[in-house]
Amino acid sequence: MSERVVLAYSGGLDTSVAIPYLAEQTGGDVIAVAVDVGQGGEDLESIRKRALACGAAESVVVDAREEFAADFCVPAMQANALYMDRYPLLSALSRPLIVKHLVAAAEQFGGTTVSHGCTGKGNDQVRFEAGLSALNPDLKVVAPARDFAWTRDKAIAFAEEKGLPIDVSAKSPYSIDQNLWGRAVETGFLEDIWNGPIEDVYDYTADPAEPREADEVVITFASGVPVALDGRPLTPYQIIAELNRRAGAQGVGRIDMVEDRLVGIKSREVYEAPAAIVLITAHMELENVTVERDLARFKRSVDQRWGELVYDGLWFSPLKDSLDAFIADAQRHVSGDVRMTLHGGRAVVTGRRSDASLYRYDLATYDTGDTFDQSLAKGFVELWGLPSKIAAKRDREA
């Protein structure tokens, strides 16, 4: 049997050209694998047929939207995952899911090599290849843009030479990656970090400065999983899709930041993540109500490390597996409702309720009905400050 190359296929110019190019370079068959993670655009059947028309020996398309929402977006929300306290990991979350289906296709069709379209400057090459190494270390990897200095100009010329059935005329001024969890935009005039984004950059969100009526939403969680909007039971995918529409219409979720890439450079990125920002904000507030203080404090450090691992491409790693177990256990009591107002680019919590709430009105109130025994506070404060008091006396005497 000749060598078989499994290609992560998007249906665009670069990966369409990669099909005949890889066949020439390897002398083998190319298996095109397209995974729908909610990126929108063309339907899966059109993408499948295009891959075959470009010379693929097999073309596999996978509708992974529900899987992506439940198994990747929800865990990120439970970890309150915001890389550098701002970026909700939208691209980083989709890569391990795509890797999982690439490995499955390699096993199904006898693939020996996996190919992706990443360059040597970005994070995604690490996410793809670290994931592949963890799931099937015997697979070889080839990345035309990185390994063969494959440029867009070369891709267009090659497509015209081979008469491939793809449009090579359209060229966006930006590099865009999008999925159910959000949208990432870079390059073009954005590479000058003094230039402000223009409205043309955005697609998932409306201009937050436009006048409009506010939108109020109630999100219901069960053990850290979003299960309903405004009392309507929905799947995580349905909830994320609806919040993208509703919060996006209010301009919620715009992020403009310079971030630290894994490869050691700083990069200017513009993100849109309406549903992600709303759900993480709501989930954090419900944790504030239901998670005990010391557990909550420790979980914040776990959340940060979890986000760094996923950003760095280590979804399939022993440490992340262990952190997943901790986070899942910490979600046992994170059930209840959070009410939010979406307006003017902001998602503001206005109410919270839970049968597992640790908030006690009779302890918190300053009015009649207060059951907090203030007589205990004096001794507590003296003992709490005693180590510092002793140290201060020693230092003065010295």
From TrEMBL:
Q: Which SUPFAM superfamilies match?
A: Adenine nucleotide alpha hydrolases-like, Argininosuccinate synthetase, C-terminal domain
Q: To which protein family does this belong?
A: Belongs to the argininosuccinate synthase family. Type 1 subfamily.
Q: Chief localization class?
A: cytoplasm
In alphabetical order, the GO MF annotations are: argininosuccinate synthase activity; ATP binding
Q: Name one Pfam family in it.
A: Arginosuc_synth
Quaternary state and partners of this protein?
Homotetramer.
Species of provenance: Actinomadura spongiicola
Annotated pathway, please? Amino-acid biosynthesis; L-arginine biosynthesis; L-arginine from L-ornithine and carbamoyl phosphate: step 2/3
* Compartments (UniProt record): Cytoplasm
What is the designated name of this protein? Argininosuccinate synthase
Annotated GO CC locations: cytoplasm
What chemistry does it catalyse, as a reaction equation? Answer: L-citrulline + L-aspartate + ATP = 2-(N(omega)-L-arginino)succinate + AMP + diphosphate + H(+)
The residues covered by the Arginosuccinate synthase-like N-terminal domain are 4-165
Task: State the EC number(s).
Answer: 6.3.4.5
Tell me one GO biological process term. Answer: argininosuccinate metabolic process
Q: Where is the Arginosuccinate synthase C-terminal domain?
A: 174-390
Q: Which enzyme class?
A: ligase
Positions with a binding annotation for L-citrulline:
Y87, N123, R127, S175, E259, Y271
- Positions contributing to ATP binding: A8, Y9, S10, G11, G12, L13, D14, T15, S16, G117
Give UniProt keywords alphabetically: Amino-acid biosynthesis, Arginine biosynthesis, ATP-binding, Cytoplasm, Ligase, Nucleotide-binding
Which residues does the annotation say bind L-aspartate?
Answer: T119, N123, D124
